[in-house]
Amino acid sequence: MARERLPDLLTFSRLPLGVIIALQGLGGRRQAGTVMLLLLLGWSLDFLDGRLARKYKEEPGWIGGYEILFDLVLCLGSLAYLGLAGFIPWPLALGYIAFAGTVAGLATAISTPQKTYSITQVVEIPLIFIPPIFLLLASPWWVILITFVWAPISLLLEWDRAMELKGKALESHRSALAGIWRLLKRS
Question: pLDDT by residue (tens digit) across 160-185?
Fold first, then answer.
């Protein structure tokens, strides 16, 4: 029983991790390396929870079904860090956090987990790539080295899953954007 709960616990761990990342902004730019390492930890936990969920072949609970929301908290934490630490204007960070949170909240309230995933991923994708650029530019050399060793290893370990999800992600993005477009046309 406890073993089957492990994937959900790993997923949930990204919630406090996102908050911890955001709070690192109070320490300023010198925390960039720490934040990058915390992001790598969060992404590693993301890979691990998926692997364990497939291994145990359990139907996901609410946490697993809405995993994208926990991923979003991790990414929004990195954006909040960038704003608090002065890498980007704080109002810009806060505006995007409010926008992404509203989109994810509405998607969760009015649709299925799959549609929530599709819609939320549209606002999450930029946050996967943009914060690490700022972070790596301000990180010590050894954090950069760890990141550049971690990236190809994680890609190799998750290659099959990434290729499997690539088609699903493209289709879900088309579907989400089409739904948003239809909603805007009605207004």
Answer: 777 766 666 666 666 666 777 777 77
* CATH code of the region 2-186: 1.20.120
Q: How far apart are CA 140 and CA 15, in angstroms?
A: 26
Q: Judge residue 98's burial from the number of C-beta atoms within 10 Å of its C-beta, 0-12 exposed, 13-18 middle, 19 or more buried.
A: exposed
Pick from 67, 159, 55, 49: nearest CA to 108 = 67
Query: How far is Cα of residue 26 from the mean position of the Cα atoms in its chain?
Result: 21
| CB-facing half-sphere around the CA of 91: CA atoms within 13 A | 0
Report the alpha-carbon distance of residue 13 to residue 19 in Å, rounded. Answer: 10
How much is the pLDDT for 3? 72
As separate numbers, helices (DSSP H) first and strands (DSSP E) second, the chain gives 9, 0
What's the length of the chain? Answer: 187
CB 128 within 8 A of CB 100: no
Residues 90 and 151 sit within 8 Å (Cβ to Cβ): no
In tens, the pLDDT along 76-129 reads 999 999 999 999 999 999 999 999 999 999 988 888 887 788 788 888 988 989
